[in-house]
């Protein structure tokens, strides 16, 4: 039976849509039922009822969990939009009670997390103590994917990965400067700045193969017909510094991140002269104006005028 718009809306419920989204994110009805705090049997019935209302199969069920059908993929997109609308409504109405409250999901690259976000999020939390922020560290490409798919509301990534024709909205966040980090006493340690080509003669401690820094280094080396001599790869900037201190090579990292690690008694940072060493960091969202109120407030805070270092924020 073909349902009219009004009867269709009456037969759907928010709880079932939220359950369906959890099943899609977790790939398991059992784990989704645990997250939503309902019995597995009740979760299974809700999903079956949802399929009956829509008159189509949404999930391929198998022993390892579930996969989405094409109809399920379509519903997931719309269900996330509906749930986001409810969240925006709740957040907007909460402003009329005791101030902005709510929950913001954010993914960001490690360089932003180390260099800028502690102070920025701390100031926001002091101004809006009833807003909870869930922050996850991801590579730039994964940040963009999460924003596009709606699994996070805000993302902070290297602007260079956006590329032409992307569908996301962006706002400038910060800039950082990459530097070559070497041990004191190294052959390059007395240089204030140098071209990256001069670093290619030495072993390197590198980051993850999909990191924007690693990709920029590889592209710069390939342009000269050479390769980066990677001796070891690590997943964090602190691990990179420790490896460099212990003689495993030299490495490229954001200068401010290096300065925050306070390792100047053992290492020195040298500016790189290439254009790619100056990086723009962007805040991204699918639609800034459509964000829930807490997320809009945080986006405005992150991209507004930077406070003077001597200003105090309470």
Architecture overview:
The protein is built from 12 helices and 12 strands. It has 314 residues and is an alpha/beta fold. The chain folds into 3 domains: 5-90, Orthogonal Bundle (Arc Repressor Mutant, subunit A); 99-174 and 279-303, D-Maltodextrin-Binding Protein, domain 2; 176-276, Periplasmic binding protein-like II (D-Maltodextrin-Binding Protein, domain 2), CATH 3.40.190.10. The longest helix is centred in the N-terminal third of the chain and has 25 residues, at 70-94. Helix 3 (29-36) crosses helix 4. Helix 9 links the parallel strand 8 (203-206) and strand 9 (229-233). Helix content is 42%, strand content 23%. The strands form 3 sheets. Strands 3, 4, 5, 6, 7, 10, 11 and 12 form an 8-stranded mixed sheet that branches.
Question: Can you give me a brief rundown of this structure?
Answer:
This protein is 42% helix and 23% strand. With 314 residues, the protein is an alpha/beta fold.
Proportion in β-strands: 15-25%
Number of helices: 12
Give the CA-based shape.
elongated
Just give the CATH class of the largest domain. Alpha Beta
Descriptors:
314 residues; alpha/beta; Arc Repressor Mutant, subunit A; D-Maltodextrin-Binding Protein, domain 2; 3 domains; 8-stranded mixed beta sheet; two-stranded antiparallel sheet; 12 helices; elongated
Task: Give the SSE map.
Layout: H1 5-11, H2 14-26, H3 29-36, H4 40-54, E1 59-62, E2 65-68, H5 70-94, E3 102-108, H6 110-115, H7 117-127, E4 131-137, H8 140-149, E5 154-158, E6 169-183, E7 193-194, E8 203-206, H9 212-223, E9 229-233, H10 237-245, E10 251-254, H11 255-260, E11 267-272, E12 278-285, H12 293-303
Parallel strand pairs: 3-4, 3-5, 7-11, 8-9
Antiparallel strand pairs: 1-2, 5-12, 6-10, 6-11, 6-12
